[in-house]
Design goal:
This protein is an all-alpha fold. It has a domain of 166 residues: Orthogonal Bundle (Cytochrome Bc1 Complex, Chain D, domain 2). Helix content is 37%, strand content 2%. The chain has eight helices and two strands; from the N terminus they run H-H-E-E-H-H-H-H-H-H. The protein has a two-stranded antiparallel ribbon. Helix 6 packs across helix 7. The radius of gyration is 35 Å and the shape is elongated.
Length: 281
Amino acid sequence: MRRRDEGTRIREQDASRATGETMLRIAAVSSLAAIALIAGCRQDMHNEPKMIPQRGSAMFPDHRSARPQVVGTIARGQLLEDSYFYTGVVQGPNGYRQEQDLMPFPVTMEVLRRGQERFNIYCTPCHSRVGNGLGEIVYRGYKPAGNLHDQVRMAQPVSHYFYVMTHGYGAMPDYSTQLTPADRWAVAAYIRALQLSQEANIKDVPAGVQVQSLKDIAAANNLPASYAQPWTLPDTYVQGYAHPAGQGTPGMAPANRADPTISIPFSKPASAGQKTAPAAK
């Protein structure tokens, strides 16, 4: 029994010694790896040699980090050769900027679909999907937005919508960040399509095409009778009266008509002979 206990003790000592040696090896390898890692991370990685805008630099004689543009050159993407495409205005004979009822590129169905998509994303919260100015914000306590089907908006040239989207108007902010110039033009073209949809008559329908009334469409789709009726302003809308000048620029936006008795989107058509944008092909 004594011999067996002694053998067990010797084996336990050998196992403990082997475990200790293994731990020492692991610690040594870890230490070497840490030393190698620390030695590889020099201070140069913290002080990366880069030029920070508006900071000085000892690299150039003028001590400026940003290099001035070379005279007679144009940066990539800044040619802007077609000024009307990027501004929506031309210089008139009197020197003032003038809007034009002209698209800078052909209006195709693809352009109109793109304009519809962008309009539904960015414009409908205020102007609604039909463009009558009764978007969801009116039901949240804001005053009505511009009705794109009234006499004033119908008479405005198509580039006016591009200019407003670029610079904003009254309480409306600009959307130059959200919409590229091509998308702004596409939305302007789609606004013209919306206006046509609300002002069209039977003469505008191609031969052989059957036209259904909204009442028939509502009945066929089990929609309420109010679906085919003019929109009315909700009780939560804000009267479009003039605001005190002290409220700032948004408060000084042109007042909109806010009479609940107005039938929207039905309004007086534009004057005869009005110019229109090129028709979609």
